Amino acid sequence: METSVTWAPTELMLGGTATPAAGGGRFAVYNPATEEALVEIADAGPADAARAMDLAAATQGAWAATPARRRAEILRRAFELVEQYRDRFALLITLEMGKPLAESHAEVTYGAEFLRWFSEEAVRINGRYTAAPSGNGRILVAKQPVGPTLAITPWNFPLAMGTRKVAAAVAAGCTMIVKPAPDTPLTMLLFAEVMAEAGLPEGVLSVLPTSDAPALSGPLLADPRLRKLTFTGSTAVGKSLLAQAAGRVLRTSMELGGNAPFVVFADADVDAAVEGALAAKMRNGGEACTAANRIHVDNAVLEEFTAKLTARMAKLTLGDGTQAGVDVGPLINQRQRSKVGELVDDAVDRGATLLLGGQPVAGPGYFYPPTVLTEIPSAARLLTEEVFGPVAAIAGFDGEEAGVAAANATEFGLAAYIYTRDLDRALRVAERVESGMVGVNRGIISDPAAPFGGIRESGLGREGGSEGIEEYLETKYIALT
Ligand code: NAD
């Protein structure tokens, strides 16, 4: 198939215009399936950050005053254009990130849907007007855009992690500077072109890929004109950005790491649970913040579940995501592959049983095979750290109480999955599981119309749903006589 990307954008998008980096620097973007460079792109530095900030600040007033209907129409047009260019987006996602083309198409659908969803939300930003209960005056509550926002995005969903921020910001009337992950900047640059084509006014959106993230984000977070930081990425980086944001008391939305439990109770439909686990574990090759990191199965059905999941995992084909018939692509880079290998080796060294995979795969390409481990000792790092790879870690438990305790044995709280045929138990457990999202008898939960986000060390705030736009709005109380 055609894998050349001579059409991929390679300059910065400064306020909607392709622009070389002020310092003239460039860096290469690699294909993780071949380890070959795809293209070299402009490398943004502090001077570019300053130019983007000037544009965002200068445009904010006019953009906030643009009628919501107009902002909605731009987003709706962008939704249609992303669909129109879906083959290009999907190919670019596969080439820079590695996931199989079918999954890239699923991401295009998911990513585009944020544009449609927020085009519908833009015209429903409502305040309220009430009489003060004391009889002393009236209360008017207005919503206003937060203002210029810095968005920092990860590499695992190069389109969707961007659109769910940009679409909400555009709907609310905020200008935005996006710093995409250095592994996958091409998709976001293409998306910025699409936004310009959709009619987004010059200055509203800048996309600044860089090989030196702190050199870009540091000055922006210190700039008094910036009003908000929205970040999706690891908890460690999120904590350091939160500390910087505290310096200026910035509004923040933090979508951080996960350690999702997938809990199968004794009364579950085991076949459905196996299919759900496969989806929750293997979507995006395991490189998803919502990925089932720990699979806890009641000992009553542990043997059956483990045998069936291992058989399903064994049938998955590993390979270059551009090729037909491939189910699992490479990991994003060598660092990520080493980390996955380390966590598996640590579990095996501590006594876990390896049922499938676990061996390095010859390169080129950062491949790691679908792997299943069971009888994982509680001290294994796999149970406490996010593996972010195609590794199913299965552990047994006895009874509902132990299942809930296992699910909550983490400082994270993004997604959780429970399988049971008992509705009472489903609701009881869903209420007790400490996470921002719970899937009941389903392994995929992401939906642009639902509030996505975590509690505890998985983050602050929500993206998508009617909650998503609130993250970009300030509440103003106007006291009336
Ligand atoms: P990462 O934290 O390494 O990087 C995320 C982004 O932050 C990238 O753009 C990176 O360049 C930038 N960055 C890194 N160090 C920085 C610094 N010192 N200053 C400023 N920016 C910096 O995460 P990743 O490896 O790209 O993504 C994987 C992580 O993201 C996982 O932990 C995953 O759970 C999480 N994630 C969370 C969600 C969610 O919605 N909660 C969604 C997707 C991914």
CATH class of the largest domain: Alpha Beta
Gyration radius, rounded: 23 Å
**What is the fold named in CATH at topology level of the largest domain?**
Aldehyde Dehydrogenase, Chain A, domain 1
CATH homologous superfamily identity of the largest domain: Aldehyde Dehydrogenase, Chain A, domain 1
**What structural class is derived from the secondary structure elements?**
alpha/beta
Can you offer a commentary on this structure?
The chain is an alpha/beta fold and 481 residues long. The chain folds into two domains: 12-256 and 457-480, Aldehyde Dehydrogenase, Chain A, domain 1 (3-Layer(aba) Sandwich), CATH 3.40.605; 260-448, 3-Layer(aba) Sandwich (Aldehyde Dehydrogenase, Chain A, domain 2). It is 38% helix and 20% strand. It has 14 helices and 20 strands. It has helices spanning 46-65, 68-84, 86-97, 101-121, 160-172, 186-197, 213-222, 235-246, 270-282, 302-314, 334-349, 399-407, 423-432, 467-470, and strands at residues 12-14, 17-19, 26-31, 36-42, 128-131, 138-145, 149-152, 176-179, 205-207, 228-232, 251-255, 260-264, 292-298, 353-356, 371-374, 391-397, 415-419, 437-440, 459-460, 473-480. The strands form five sheets. A seven-stranded mixed beta sheet has the order 14-15-16-13-12-17-18, sandwiched between helices. A six-stranded mixed beta sheet has the order 9-8-7-10-11-19, sandwiched between helices. Helix 2 packs across helix 6, helix 3 packs antiparallel against helix 6 and helix 4 (101-121) packs parallel to helix 5. The radius of gyration is 23 Å and the shape is globular. The chain binds nicotinamide-adenine-dinucleotide.
